[in-house]
Design brief:
The protein is of the alpha+beta class and 571 residues long. The protein folds into four domains: 277 residues, ATPase, nucleotide binding domain (Nucleotidyltransferase, domain 5, 2-Layer Sandwich), CATH 3.30.420; 75 residues, Alpha-Beta Complex (Actin, Chain A, domain 4); 137 residues, Substrate Binding Domain Of DNAk, Chain A, domain 1 (Sandwich); 76 residues, no CATH class. 36% of the residues lie in helices and 29% in strands. The protein has 15 helices and 27 strands. Strands 1, 2, 3, 4, 10 and 11 form a six-stranded mixed beta sheet that branches. Strands 17-12-13-14-18-21 form a six-stranded mixed beta sheet. A hairpin with a 2-residue loop joins strand 8 and strand 9. It is globular and about 90 Å long. The structure holds adenosine monophosphate (AMP). Adenosine monophosphate binds next to helix 5 and helix 6.
């Protein structure tokens, strides 16, 4: 069985193709969304999901979130005494989703389709593939998130001929794709996006608003517990504003009580610079697809952040029509990944469906332009694969050395749209030794091959000798080599994973501890006593006693959360 995974910045989901349709699989807590958070518990075991998200506030030094933003970079995140790369943290999330799928399907799962932002670079894609490997999953396909959303949407419209745009604003990334559906063939015409724009940035904008309005001292930024609590309040206020006119961010620190009530208009104002950034990728995708917005039959929303009414209003004004609301924006990418898993498994129900995708950015090499016989201008970008070319594809271009007698050629590979390479992303370098002889004869054919996963292979052939070198981009721009992966696989295998069957109780305790830190006075003391009583009950390991108490405890926490924080009611 191949599973489909939406590995999100904020939340992740797993789905399968079953009985002719995609189906979401809940985690051990019965939730469809698993927060992409990892924490080391006090006993050293690994917690993934909701419990880890709660520990972000109580134990920020042992917990990590939003690590998808660092995929493929050399940045490490510290959890307790250990350092983890984003690939390893993602692997722990993937492992947890794999275990959830196995528990429901009752069979081992070893293959997966994993979605990535369309705008993810080659390095970030390779990092995602490595994360899959570290989780014990063979990545059957890396699927662009908006393409996945389109697959889920297209499944319901297979008999129509339609052009639509997917507007995908997740926790950390923004992707736009324009698609055409015709006789079961779903063709991505163009993709564009921003890898550093998502719901998390709206939270940051609210955190900044809080700092300004409350005139908070700058030193508070260095206090991780305070900052995590403030972020959580900002996140809760942002989501509350999706269904109510005002929300309050409130927190206590030492002896001070801070509260700020905001309305949607203030959220919109605070986020104006972010909203402005949503326009350019939409315009670029339409221009590349050679379509006007009036030629689209529908706008499909994907990503949790499109739940914000201000985003929906913006989409409505941008396109002059309301977006489609029949698909759940949180689930649509995972459902599409399951459709792709069904396509991979050659399911009969999907035999008529064909999906084609594009490369969302241009790929090329650095060249020098000759100004005169003795002078040249360096650092220019020469695209070999233009953005939004259908994939898979292979293109070859011939290059010549600049100077007579040149013995070496450095081939620097870049990704991006800028004219000068300094403004694009460096992917890797290939050094070629040129044969002696007249320099007009020492041409090099550079072949770029871009596969359906969005991974690039570069090959350079010296024309005269027909000698070929291959560029291994992996390992150049922060990626992991096969050797690194083997080593890290070993290290991850040694980590103790918190047992699934005990996760529900552990998650409840993590939530209670988070709320305890936010309360004061009698309410705090009472909650402290309930936590202690629940811990003692857990020590009995008798589920007949634990289960009814757990429900009561959960209700109490719901009550505390509803009353004293979001609505700003007094404690
Ligand atoms: P995703 O990566 O698709 O899971 O999207 C996660 C992002 O969606 C996070 O930034 C969430 O804060 C945001 N989000 C989820 N639900 C809501 C909501 N009801 N209102 C506003 N933002 C939301």
């Amino acid at each position: 069985m191949i599973i489909g995974i939406d590995l999100g910045t904020t939340n992740s989901l797993v789905a399968v193709w079953q009985d002719g349709q995609p189906r979401l699989l809940p985690n051990a807590l019965g939730d469809r969304l698993t927060p992409s958070c990892v924490s080391l518990d006090d006993d050293g075991s690994v917690l993934v999901g909701r419990a880890a998200r709660d520990r972000l506030q109580t134990h920020p030094e042992r917990t990590a979130a939003v690590f998808k933003r660092y995929m493929g970079s050399n940045k490490t995140l510290r959890l307790g005494r250990r350092e983890f790369r984003a690939e390893e943290l993602s692997a722990l999330v993937l492992k947890s989703l794999k275990a959830d799928a196995e528990a429901i399907l009752g069979e081992p799962v070893t293959e997966a389709v994993i979605t990535v932002p369309a705008y993810f670079s080659d390095t970030q894609r390779k990092a995602t593939r490595a994360a899959g490997q570290l989780a014990g999953l063979r990545v059957e396909r890396l699927l662009n998130e908006p393409t996945a959303a389109a697959l889920a949407y297209g499944m319901h419209h297979l008999d129509s001929e339609t052009r639509f745009l997917v507007f995908d604003l997740g926790g950390g990334t923004f992707d736009v794709s324009v698609l055409e559906l015709f006789e079961g063939v779903m063709e991505v015409r163009a993709s564009a996006g921003d890898n550093f724009l998502g719901g998390e940035d709206f939270v940051t904008a609210l955190v900044e608003l809080f700092f300004t309005r409350q005139e908070l001292p700058e030193r508070l930024r260095k206090e991780p517990v305070f900052m995590q609590q403030l972020r959580a309040q900002a996140e809760a206020a942002k989501c509350a504003l999706s269904s109510q006119p005002t929300a309050t961010m409130r927190l206590w620190h030492k002896d001070s009580d801070y509260a700020l009530q905001i309305g949607e208009a203030e959220l919109e104002q605070a986020c104006a610079p972010l909203l402005a950034r949503l326009r350019a990728p939409v315009e670029r995708a339409l221009r590349d697809a050679d379509l006007r917005s009036s030629e689209l039959s529908n706008i499909v929303l994907a990503g949790g952040a499109t739940r914000m009414p201000l985003i929906r209003r913006l989409v409505t004004t941008m396109f002059g029509r309301f977006p489609a609301i029949d698909l759940d924006p949180d689930a649509v990418v995972a459902l599409g990944a399951a459709v792709q898993a069904g396509l991979k498994a050659r399911d009969r129900a999907l035999s008529e469906v064909v999906m084609t995708d594009v490369s969302p950015y241009s790929l090329g090499v650095e060249v020098s332009r000759r100004l005169s016989a003795h002078d040249a201008s360096h650092g220019h970008f020469d695209p070999i694969i233009e953005r939004n070319s259908p994939v898979p594809l292979s293109r070859v271009k011939r290059y010549h050395p600049m100077a007579p007698g040149q013995t070496e050629m450095h081939l620097n590979v870049f990704q991006g749209e800028a004219r000068l390479v300094k403004d694009n992303i460096h992917l890797g370098e290939l050094r070629l030794v040129l044969p002696p002889g007249p320099h007009e004869e020492s041409g090099v054919d550079v072949r770029f091959t871009y596969d359906v996963d969005g991974l690039l292979q570069v090959e350079a052939t010296i024309v005269k000798t027909q000698e070929t070198s291959t560029l291994l981009i992996q390992g150049q721009a922060g990626g992991l080599s096969e050797e690194d992966i083997a080593q890290r696989l070993q290290a991850l295998a040694e980590l103790k994973i918190h047992p699934r069957e005990k996760l529900e109780n552990r998650t409840l305790l993590a939530r209670a501890e988070r709320l305890y830190e936010q309360l004061r006075g009698d309410a705090r003391e009472q909650l402290g006593m309930r936590i202690f009583a629940f811990e003692r009950l857990l020590a009995t390991q008798d589920d007949r006693l634990i289960a009814p108490q757990r429900r009561g405890f959960e209700q109490l926490l719901d009550h505390i959360e509803r009353d004293s924080f979001l609505n700003g009611a007094p404690d």
